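Dear Dr. K.,

Following up on our conversation at the group meeting, I've run the structure prediction for Helix-turn-helix domain-containing protein from Eiseniibacteriota bacterium. I'm pasting the input sequence below exactly as I used it, so you can double-check it against your construct before we proceed with anything downstream. Let me know if the numbering doesn't match what you have in your notebook.
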Amino acid sequence: MANKTPETFVLERPEQRDVLRSPIRLEILGQFLKPGGMSVGEIAERMGRPAASLYYHVELLEAVGILEKVGERRRGKRFEALYEPVADRFGYPADPDQTSSIEDAVKTMSSAFRMAEKDMKSALQDNTGTYEGPYRNCVGTRVHARVSKKALKAVNDHLAAIESVLVEENQRETARKTDQYVSLTLALLPLHGRNKPVATKSGSKSSKE
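The predicted structure tokens came back this morning:
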């Protein structure tokens, strides 16, 4: 968001990680597409939900320090609070000895993939997806590969470039008529036990996926 640090906000506190296990709270965070803050009513409108169903979740995200109030806006005869995430990105402590943080990270990503499953089903059923060409907006893929360090760096460079494009688009002040609202869910993961030598018929060793 505007004026926020570009670094990832690490969710050190257990209550912060616990809050983001919820698919609806992850979806709320995904609604903040540009600077300036959003009200609960605006978030609800984007999500197609009644505002009354979101106040609890927004207040909980604020209570643990993931959302913050950045101002207010007059709406009719009353003022409504405006919220923004405290950072553009959120991450988990990279400590394999913290069992609880590992479980929280897995459950949060499980929620994210459940949301992706829901979004894909909706796109397929409502026929809103474009499946070919340069403006494709609906694709699902899973690839296993044995890669060199050079290739892994190239993959990460491309992922960073994709993220940069999406962040830049989110921060654009004006919308175009041709703009689309999309979601992107990714997981790049190491695979264990896939590179063990396997004996061939001749007795020699080979490496098999």
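Two things stood out to me. Confidence is low (pLDDT under 50) at residues 205-209. Residues 99-126 form the longest helix (28 residues).

Best regards,
J.T.
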